[in-house]
Amino acid sequence: MKYRLTGRRRGAVAALITALCATVFTPGASGSTAPPAPSLEFASPDSQALYGNAYRAALDNLLRTNTIAADPVRYGKSGLLDPDVGIIRAGGGYDQPWTRDASVNSWNAASLLSPAQAENTLWSVVDKDAAGNLRVQQDDQQWDQVIWVTAAWNHYLVTGDRTFLDNAYRTAADTVAIREHSAAPGFNPGYGLFTGASFFNDGIAGYPAPPADATESVSTGSMPWPGVANGMFLSTNEVYYAAYVNLANMAERLGRPGGEVAGYRAKAAALKSAINRHFWNQRTGLYDYMVLADGTHGAYQEGTGLAFALLFGIANPAQARSIVSHAAEMPWGMPDTYPNWARYSDEQPGRHNAIVWPLVQGLWAKALAQQGEQDAFASETARLAKLANSNSGFWEIYNGNTGVVDGGWQRLGDTVKFHWGSEPDQTWSATAFLSMIHNGLFGMDFTDAGLAFSPVLPAGWGDVTLRNLHYRDADLTVALHGAGTRIRSFTLDGRRVPGNSVPASLRGEHTVNIVLTGATNGDRDDDGVTDARDACPDTPGVAALRGCPDPAHIEAEDALNTGGVKTNVNHTGYSGRAFLDGLWAQGASSSFTVHRATAAAGTGAITLRYANANSDSRTMTLSVDGRKVRQVAFPRVSDSWDAWGTVTFGDIPVSGPNPVVTLSYESGDTGALNLDWLEFH
Q1: Cis peptide leading into 211, omega within 30 of 0?
Q2: What is the DSSP letter of 616?
């Protein structure tokens, strides 16, 4: 869960975690060598800068930062944990795998990219009952337990591991049986639906009043509220539906009795029917978020619920088209719940309300790709890539209107209203982006028979190649050419193959080439240049020059920021959406791509607006295209960080149409600045 005040805050264990995370725990036995991580290569430099950078950061997040040692005493209660293989933690500030995080991260990406760690992570949240039966660990997070089933079935499809499948089926069957026989939350036979908190909203900020009240007086968590515990919510019931479908798939694959398979399929069909009967709202063209025990409906939007309806096939084709047409997105992505509850606002969005969690963005983008919605998929993927690139990686939560790192607000009674932090290095934020690329852009679909492809390559992105993709016993290079969703040609090692897929039995190194057609040619960033001709797509709201941001004024929040630099709004007087802070330690940097009207070599001047409330002048290193130009100084402005000044540096050598100007905190610099914008003349 992403909510508890205890157990998931950073503390004395931080140094230990940092040390553990410095090691990449490799698949297989202890001491084995990990194969190279995949690489994503776009022919377009602008696509590479936007999506390629974010992809590398996401891989680093999953495979290095958040892969840690597995403590067998703490995580080995299933008897299936391999102590020589690492596990995947939830992220910065959260030192455990957690059931829901473990499941989502495995499903999103880890089962493909790091299968040994993914399996170990799934077993790390499993224990045994008094009789020795395997079950997902029992707590008050019933939705966490159930999503594990979908992650386990996906892990089998990716790896083909029958031993894992046998243990996973026993775990899943016992866990779902526990849930079926529980009281509250449990199964409500009058509605044919499961009760209990929604899949993602473990905080009461994710619920309107009722079941909450205006001051959130009972609890900041969701389950202590009777209306939540006894209510029925869209995403949770969809997760149960997927669990039944996947239990039937597991049972069938293992050759279990036909009645067992049929029983799960019948339960899935009945639950799907109940979801459509009670949640579908013909008036709004969407599924409602909730049905309370007294029959009260909540015609609100739930991002994960809408995504699951598409991904799990709960919506029929007409409903799916309606969802895509009517779903409301915020400027920076699909929100968790929407719109603002009365007790929140755009100025103070709730932690789980009208705010953007990348996990939700990833599910929504994957659902859009599945529907062939090229422009909408492109926009959602670009938003998360920009959020990651502008904030030194993948954070927990962002403001949906500004894109600024923001943990959201919460109430605690009449007088207390507090502002949460947003934690860095969140694994499921990174794996959300990895899923956008693998399952969305490349359209990967894992089956018993093999790996099928249904790519969605938007106009303007350019050709793209994924190298070093390890699938079972094969090492694949997958290249997409053209644009669109219709496959004109699919070849494996130069030979056409049917089904647009590679067999599960494939071994060794192979190359897949896919030629696509049918791209739409819209203008998704609304800069007056069509997607196919846009040299710099996906920069909404920025003054454009030939489709690119005007170098005469570039907001610092649109730069590529690394080393801890992130957006912030906790001081006044800045322009644009936010300013940058985090230029406080060596390794921090901000890079601005200057899109010039000419490719000729020459010199220019750079003006920067900044804040420096230190007692002295501060220095940074200025580089162009990776070559150091000189150390530059930023005089003290004021004793207030709300005051801003400007400084101009002349004789900056540039060449080519897109030079990259970088300010970095290097050895010998003093840093400790905030940045607002850069202008190139």
Answers
A1: yes
A2: S
CB distance 675 to 601 below 8 Å: no
CA distance 8 to 94: 4
| Distance, CA of 244 to CA of 153 (rounded, Å) | 11
> Cis omega (within 30 of 0) on the bond before 659?
no
* Residues contacting 181, CB < 8 A, separation 6+: none
Topology given in CATH for the domain delimited by 69-438: Glycosyltransferase (1.50.10)
| Biggest CA pair distance of the chain | 79
Backbone φ and ψ for 184, nearest 5 degrees, come out as: -135, 115
pLDDT, tens only, 435-462 = 999 999 999 999 999 999 999 999 989 9
What's the pLDDT tens digit per position in 9-36? 222 223 322 333 333 334 333 334 567 8
Nearest one of 598, 593, 596, 662 to 629, comparing CA atoms: 662
Contact 460, 532 (CB under 8 A): yes
**CA-to-CA distance for 596 and 681, rounded, in angstroms?**
10
The class of domain 442-518 in CATH terms is: mainly beta
The amino acid occupying position 276 is N
CB contact at 8 A, 278 and 293: no
Q: Produce one character per residue of 332-356: b if its CB has 16 or more CB atoms within 10 Å, e if not.
A: bbbbbbbebbebbeeeebbbbbbbb
Dihedral in degrees, nearest 10, Cα atoms 174, 180, 184, 188? 170
Residue with token string 């969701």 = 222
User: Does the structure show a pLDDT above 90 at 546?
Assistant: no
Using CA atoms, how far apart are residues 167 and 123, in angstroms rounded to an integer?
Answer: 10
Domain boundaries defined on the chain: 69-438, 442-518, 550-680
Fold held by 550-680: Jelly Rolls (2.60.120)
Q: What is the mean pLDDT of the chain?
A: 92
* Torsion over CA: 529, 532, 535, 541 (sign): positive
Opening angle at CA 319, ends 318 and 323, nearest 5:
120
Q: How far apart are CA 601 and CA 129, in angstroms?
A: 71
Question: Is this structure's pTM higher than 0.90?
Answer: yes
What's the rounded Cα separation, in Å, for the pair 668 and 586?
Answer: 9
